[in-house]
Amino acid sequence: MNAIRHRPPSGLADYRDIVRRRWPWVVLPALLIAGGGIMAIRHLPKLYQSETMILVEAQKVPTSFVQSTVNENTDELLQEISEEILSRTHLLAIIHKYGLYPKLNGVLTERQLAARMRQDITVKNITDPTDPSQAHNGGAFQIAYQGTTPRQAQEVTQDLAGLFITENLAVRQQQAQGTVQFINSELQRAKRRLQRESAQQEALEKQYMGALPEQEASNLQQLGSEQTALEAAEQQAARDQQQKTYLQSLLAALQNAPALATAAPTSPLDAQLQADKVKLAMDEQVDTPANPDVQRLKREIGALSKALAADPAPKTAPGPAGMSEQQIRGELATLDQDARWQQRQQRRISANIAQLRARVAMAPAVQERLAAVQRNYKIATDNYESLLKKRDAAQMAAAMEAQADGEEFRVVDPPSLPQRPDKPAVAKLSLLAVVFGLLVGVGLGLAREYADPVVRNERDVEYYLGTTVLAQVPLVLAAPERRRQLHRQMLVGALALALVAGAAMVAYLHGATWLARMGW
Amino acid sequence: MKPEINSLGLIPAKDDEAPAPEFHLAPRQQDKLLALPAAPGATVPRLTAWEQLRVLRTRIVEAARDRDLRRILVTSSVVGEGKTLLAANLALSLSQLEDKRVLLVDADLRRPSLHHVFGRTVELGLGDLLAGGPRWSQAVIPLHPRLDFLPCRPAAEQSVELLNRRRMKDLMEEAAAAYDLVVVDSAPLSPIADTQVLVRLVDAALLVVRSGVAPYPLARQSAALLEPKLLGVVLNGVERVTRRDYAYGYYAPHFQEEAGR
C-alpha cells in the first residue's frame, strides 16, 4: 500500500481542533519562554545614555596661505581617532576610573571588558550640510555612552569628548610631522638622484667633447678650412714639382751642352732662342727629328735667329737659363726641403679632416644619448624643486598644527544628563519574548501534531479511508473517570505553573548575567 | 408553477421503540450501556452518544431495507478502539425496535469480553459450539425478549481454525434465519487473521475507528480488507462534544425528558 501523506488542515475547524488538542504544547513553552524572558528583561540593568555634540572647526589660517597636510574628511578622521580612543588601553583607564561593569569585572577578561564598553559607545557623524553653523566648518559628530546611572553616563561621555579633542590635536600634529619627515626623506633621495644624473651628464659631455651637438657647426666649418688648406698644399706641391722638373731638365741640359752654360743671353730674344735650343737639344735626345714638336722648335729657332740677326742690340739682363749649375742645384735643394714640409703638412691636414669627419658622423648618436641624459636630469631637477616647495609647505602646516591653529574639535552641546533609562526597551523586548515563545510553542504543537498519524474526525475518515462515517460516538467518561481526568489536569497545571515559576526565578536571578555574556 | 400536492391521509405519530430493557448491573457497567436511556442529569456526551447510536441504528435499518442485511460484523483496526462496547450498544439499540429480534455474538475467540459488559459468566460459548458441542441455542443467553447473547470463552490457540470450520458458517446461517439481525463482535483486524475469516460469513461490516487512537495507515488497510462489505465507519471516542457540534441544544428538552423516563 502506498504511503499516504498527512492530511493538511483544510479549514478553521481543523485549526480549532489542533489548538484544542495541542494547546498545552503551545501554551507551556510560550509561558516558559515569555515568562522567563520577561523576568530576565525586567531584571536587566537600566542603561542611561548621555550624548554630546562636537563641531569640527575649520583651521584658523586661511587655506590659501597654508594648506593642511592632515586628512580633512570627517568620516575618515573620526574613524582614525575612534580607533585610537576606543583602544583597550584608553577604555580600561576609563573603566577603572569610574568602576564600570563591576559585575563583569571578574567574569570577563580585560579585552572582553573593553569590547563590552565599546558596545556602549556610539560615535556618529551627524554632519548636516544645510546647517549654517556647520557649513563653514568641517561638520559635526555625536558621542554617546550608555551607563548604569545618569551621572556615570554623563561623566564618561565628558571624558570621551575630552579624549576626542586632545587626540585630534595629537593626531593632527603627528600627521603633519609625519608628512614633513616623509617629504624630507623623499627630498634626500631626489637630491641623490639629481647628483647622479648631473655626474652622468658631465661624464658624457667629457667623453664626447668636440663631437657635441653644439660643436657640429664649427666642426663643419673647420672641416671646410682644412679641405681648402689641403687643396692649396697639394697645388703648391704640384707647382714645386713642376719647378723641380724644370730645374732638373735645365741642369741636365747644362751638363750635356756646357757652351750653353757660358754664353750668356744678351736680350730676351736671345734668351728665348737659347732656351728653345736647350729644349730642342733635350727633345732630340728622346724624339726623332720628324717629331712635330722638334720640327716646330726648329722653325721657332730659325725665326728667332733671323730676328736676332736683324736687331742684334740691345743686350739686357740674363734669364733663368742664365743660372749657373750651382744656383740650380741650390734651388733644387730648397724645393726638396719645401716638398718634405708640404708632405708633413698634408698628412696633418688629412688627419684633421678624418677626425672632423668622424666627429660630424657621430654627432646624431651623441645627441640622442645626451638628450636622454639631459631629460633624466631635468626630471630629477623638477622633482627636487617640487619636493623643496612641498617641504616648505609641510613645514608651514606642521608649524600651524603645532600652534593648534589647524582644524580642531569644539564641544557644541555638552554631555547631557539623561532623565530616564534608554535601555532596556522593556515593552519591545517583552513583546519579542512573547512572540518568540508563541512561535516555539506553535512549532512544538505542530511537530507533535504531525508526529501523531491517527484518525481524529470525520474529515480524516473521508480523507484517509475514503468512506463515510455512519455515526460519531463521543467519549463518555463515568464519574470516577471524570474525577481522575480532572485530577490529572490539575496536576499538569500545577506542574506547568511550577515550571514557569521556576524558569522565571532562574531568569530573574541569572538572566542578566547570561544576557550580558551573550552581548546584550 | 406550483405543484399540486394532495393529502392522502394523516399518519399518527408512533414510537416504534419498545420500553428499554432493565439490566441488573453495577453502576459502572450500567454507564457503559449507552444505548440505554440516560439517567436524569446525564452529561452532554452521554446524551449525544445515545443519540448517535440511534442514528447508527436508523442507518443500518435503512440499509437493510434495500438488501439482505442480517449479519453485521463489528470490528476495528487495533485493540482498544471500543468495538465490543459499540457492538453491545448497537445490539441493544436495535433490540429496542419492536419488530427486531437481535442476536449478539461474541466472536473474539482470543479475548472475549462481551459477557463482562452484561455482567454474565460463560459456561458454554461459541468456541465450544464450533468444537462440536451442543446446539448453539443451548449456549445463547437471553438478555431481553428481543435480544439474545451468544458469549464466548477464550480459545486463542485455535481461533482461526475454529472460525474456518463449516460449523461456523452453518451457525451464522442458522442465526440469520432465526433472528432479524445478528451483531458479531470480533477481534481487531490487525495483526490477526480471525476477523478476515468472519468477513466472508457476514452481510456487512462496521469499522470502529477510535478518534486519536487508530493509526490511519492501519485504518486504511482495515477498510480495504473489509471491502466490499464495509457498510461504513463508526467514529468512536470523539473527545470534544458540545451542544453546537450535534445541534443538541435544539433538542435538549426532548433529551432531558427521555433521559428522565
Describe the structure.
The complex is a heterodimer of chains A (520) and B (261). By secondary structure, chain A is an alpha+beta fold. Chain A has three domains: 120 residues, no CATH class; 165 residues, no CATH class; 162 residues. Chain A contains 14 helices and five strands. Chain A has a four-stranded antiparallel β-sheet with strand order 2-3-1-4. About 1% of the residues of chain A have low confidence. Chain B is of the alpha/beta class. Chain B is 39% helix and 15% strand. Chain B is built from eleven helices and seven strands. The termini of chain B are far apart. At the A-B interface, α1, α13 and β5 of A face α1, α2, β6, α10 and β7 of B. β5 of chain A pairs parallel with β7 of chain B.
Question: Which characteristics define this entry?
Answer:
heterodimer; A: 520 residues; alpha+beta; four-stranded antiparallel beta sheet; B: 261 residues; alpha/beta; Rossmann fold; seven-stranded mixed beta sheet; 11 helices; 7 strands; globular; disordered N terminus; disordered C terminus
